[in-house]
């Protein structure tokens, strides 16, 4: 099973940017998708973005689509979440997660942003947006 380690969280002012990283270790060829989730205070964990590892195709939740983007670097086994124009309501813990054996078209399905579909999780990185 893969191991995921997130980094890049921190405190930024509203309107600022952060780039989160998720390093994938114990890599397996069965890895098909990596996703970013977040847990905002008092709310359930929600999907933000996902990527098909082999193709780099991504999907981003409509609620953040104009501000967040996801990418991955195959050579570094790392997935990224670029977050721009951050707002106080983006404050929370951000997690990356991995799943295996999904078809490449799965990134276009709603399940790609569903937490129940992911088997492996990182420990999370805290993001605080405050002035």
What does the model show?
It is a single chain. With 131 residues, the chain is mainly beta. The protein is 0% helix and 48% strand. The protein contains no helices and eleven strands. It has strands at residues 3-7, 10-12, 18-25, 31-39, 46-52, 58-60, 68-73, 78-83, 92-100, 120-121, 125-129. The strands form two sheets. Strands 2, 4, 5, 6, 9, 10 and 11 form a seven-stranded mixed sheet that branches. Strands 1-3-8-7 form a four-stranded antiparallel sheet, with no helix packed on it. The model has no long low-confidence stretch (mean pLDDT 95).
Compile the SSE list and pairings.
Elements: E1 3-7, E2 10-12, E3 18-25, E4 31-39, E5 46-52, E6 58-60, E7 68-73, E8 78-83, E9 92-100, E10 120-121, E11 125-129
Parallel strand pairs: 2-11
Antiparallel strand pairs: 1-3, 3-8, 4-5, 4-9, 5-6, 7-8, 9-10, 9-11
């Amino acid at each position: 099973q893969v191991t995921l380690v997130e980094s890049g969280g921190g405190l930024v002012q509203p309107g600022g940017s952060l780039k989160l990283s998720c390093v994938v270790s114990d890599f397996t060829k069965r890895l098909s998708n990596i996703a970013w989730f977040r847990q905002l205070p008092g709310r359930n964990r929600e999907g933000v973005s996902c990527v098909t590892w082999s193709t780099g195709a991504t999907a981003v939740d409509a609620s953040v689509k104009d501000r967040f983007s996801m990418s991955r670097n195959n050579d570094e086994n790392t997935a990224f979440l670029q977050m721009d124009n951050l707002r106080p309501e983006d404050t929370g813990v951000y997690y990356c997660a991995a799943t295996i054996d999904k078809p490449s078209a799965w990134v276009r399905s709603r399940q790609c942003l569903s937490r129940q579909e992911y088997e492996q999780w990182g420990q999370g990185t805290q993001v605080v947006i405050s002035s």
